[in-house]
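Quick one - inputs below.
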Amino acid sequence: MSGQVRDAGGRVAGPVPYRSLPRLYARLAGATVRSQLQYRWSFALYALGVFGANGFEFLALLVLLGQVPSLGGWSAPEVALLWGMSTMSFAVAEAFGGGFEKLHMVVRAGAFDQVLARPLPVFFQVMTSQVEAHRAGRLAQGLVAVAFAVSGGSLPAWGADEVARLLGAVLSGAVIFFATFVIGGAWAFVTVDASEVVNAFTYGGATLACSPLDLLAVPVRRAATWVFPLAFVNYVPALAILHRPDAAGILPLSIDPSGPLATLLVPAVALAYLGVASLAWRAGLRRYQGAGS
Amino acid sequence: MTGAPTIEVHGLRKAFRRKASRPGVLGALRGWLPGDVDVVPAVREVSLRVGRGELVGVLGPNGAGKSTTVKMLTGILWPDGGEARVLGLVPWRSRRELARRIGVVFGQRTQLWWDLPLRDSLDLLRHVYGVAAARFAGNLAAYGEQLGLGEFLHVPVRQLSLGQRMRGELVAALLHDPEVLFLDEPTIGLDVVAKGRIRDVLRGLVADRGVTVLLTTHDMADVASLCDRIVLIDHGQVVHDGPLAGVRARFGRECTLVVDLAEEAPEPLGALVVPGAREVRARGRRRWLEFDRSMTSASDLVAAVASRYPLADLAIEEPGIEEVIGRMYAAGSGAARG
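Output:
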């Protein structure tokens, strides 16, 4: 317990140290999962619903691709890969960002003061407030879609390099979606009525990311690159995995989509967007606390 | 008061900015435009010093600024102006550090995990506050027994009665041995037994552990049985700060003499030339005479009445605490508005 100051009464002084946060995360997240398991039927039905809704979406895509051999030059396994990447990223982001998604309800109920009364960082508490175990189903579906894409044998050679690219892309994509949840949470401090607008970006974004980006209208492409970096969730990293040219013209200065620069660009964009989200979060929290701007 | 005060507040101010809500569709649309904002002052000027081991009752009508003041002193909200130190820390700048040394109970909210057994919530809070296992066990045993938690420690919080839950909330706020306790209406809606238990624990905390308690309440029995000192906040200002006895002396001077006359007499009684006394009610031979103790004594008034009307019986009624506070509110509003 180095660095901890104790007063005469043996109390620990100073804020709760940051290094104790990972274990606390596990405890608090575990508590929310246990809370959900108190309602077994509701949990089971909700999990089934989430699994079904996503699974049917994927089935519909498969039916479409079964009839049409390619979607604007993208083969069925390629589209399945895009869908799988975006779905996995979203699942991971949701696991950590669910608290931000539900924050408007906490603020509206007046329960946010209780969060501020605790000796932990607010961001951390919101992150642990809503961890939904049934979201794991979505991750599994993404994996199934990727497995389907790879097992078809029509994709370029699949080795350690591609697996690493895929993992990096899924994590970067998760950061992008997570940051979107955080920005949505920041909005809850401004108005509690914006949750539908936020949903349009989170769930809408996840749906949009399932279509190859070069098939979308140019303004949508631009927005999905520069306003909300959806292109970097799956389109840009998939180009490298699939050895495809950048038909949508997303990458500036004709960067080679399979080159090292593009590989670094994906996590860099994700982190930059997370930085923007953290600024928005701080501004929102300051507004709630009336700390001035 | 020895040394630096535990709570020191000077000229604290806070206003809320709300989007002006206007009727109709056009009004709703105007809400999206910038600038259309109402500024509602919640705390205008609050100054306060509270020493270690004091138990202070913060009173005031709804919307007077009590809760906003407590939220600033616990670091939940930032003030617009003024200064405050709690345990030497500026609450809103050292929120997390302060949170570890204070306990906060909002009677209308819960800090427990709704769907989990009470025991699980307490265990989670032990980790949130970084309380050592031995200290946690000791506190849970001591406070749990005082508040009788044993019988429902393993019941999910959502199934607890309000009284049980509030006892749980109080224990939850005490596990980390807070030096200052902020209680916002902790006894609201509770039965006599639960209220009594909570009051006993609060008295013990102050007497045995030197905990400083700031209690906002509308419950006059809380005030009468717990508070050495009363701070009355109205319209965002402290309009009275002093011991409960002083409140009585200032706002409880009006007493009532109730007399039963031996014979029929006119209503009202004829000219009683006693300064500060007036007849406020009459029912047959029973008459109620209100008088100001600072202007006339009870015996002078009795003598004056008895000299003209023979008395069969008499009684003197002092105002109840409820009535005293009611008068204090009335006087406070007058002062703030005037």
